[in-house]
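To the team - flavin-adenine dinucleotide complex, inputs and output below.
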Amino acid sequence: TKITDHIRNANGKPIFSIEVIPPVKGDTLKNLLDNIEPLMEFKPPFIDVTYHREEYIERPLPDGTIQKIVTRKRPGTVGICSAIMHKFGVDPVPHVLCGGFTREETEDFLIDLHYLGIDNVLVLRGDPAKPFNTFKPKENGYSYASELVEQVANMNKGVYLHEEDTALSPSDFCVGVAGYPEKHFEAADHEIDFQYLKQKIDKGADYIVTQMFFDNQKYFTFVEKCRQAGINVPIIPGLKPLSTRKQLQVLPRIFHLQMPQDLVTAVEVCENDQQARQVGIEWCIQQCRELIAAGAPVLHFYTMGKADNIAKIAKEVF
Ligand code: FAD
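Output:
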């Protein structure tokens, strides 16, 4: 089932959903599935599964050579999607990246997803691979998510790469894209970022999921500007409960967002992470209540490997 149909079928009732991250290389799937199982009580109709390509740092050695150290590679997105579908009967939403792939590899990947009966994809460019500061596409890959949206939209019309035959069987993916209430960090200003978001929708994206934010006003303003710009697709707020004191600094740095002063003040007086976590949970509950009252179609939680605080929030909110 498509995300847009899930939203339509909910008839205005807010939907609970989550994003999970594949385990690090060599870890087992069991931990991930056990971790999210308690959240099934809140009946998520879909679960996003992120995709992470290999990243590395270069360390100069005394002999002048450079050692390449792989720092992050979390394969397994497709397998996890399949497991989620079979174990929980929930629609998985694999993230599909521009970075690290040629368009041919992407086509093959999408064909696999289609064969598996996966109806939804979240299309993303991907971050610059460490140690670089700027994004570099793979040769014959894409520089922007909008180009990949166009490829999926073409496949949905039965138009594949390098095929003359136009009578090929089409896929039928519902396509999500990312939106940034606090602006994407590379965009010179909000207006430009907005134009490119609009481009992703014009090329065929069906819904938007936002980067996490802690100040609902940022989301409300973002939605308002989208509507003024003629973007009429559902805009799903992405939420992450703050869970340690350190995250006050870490999350703004990684995700390019601002922490509201009231939250900063409340966390700063905490004596330990347990207290900070409780403040984070309560803050998120308030955010959820306000978002639901304002008609947000879905509350989408970034688990980042932790599900127990999200269960506490969902218990209060759903
Ligand atoms: P784009 O929409 O391509 O935009 C990237 C930048 O380029 C923006 O600054 C935009 O303004 C600009 N731009 C867009 N089009 C053009 C154009 N035609 N000309 C000039 N500039 C342009 N990363 C992962 O690696 N794996 C994941 O699973 C993952 N999941 C995510 C899920 C969500 C909900 C979000 C919000 C982010 C996720 N990310 C993930 C991070 C994402 O890959 C980064 O934020 C990335 O830097 C931008 O991706 P995008 O799809 O928004 O890029």
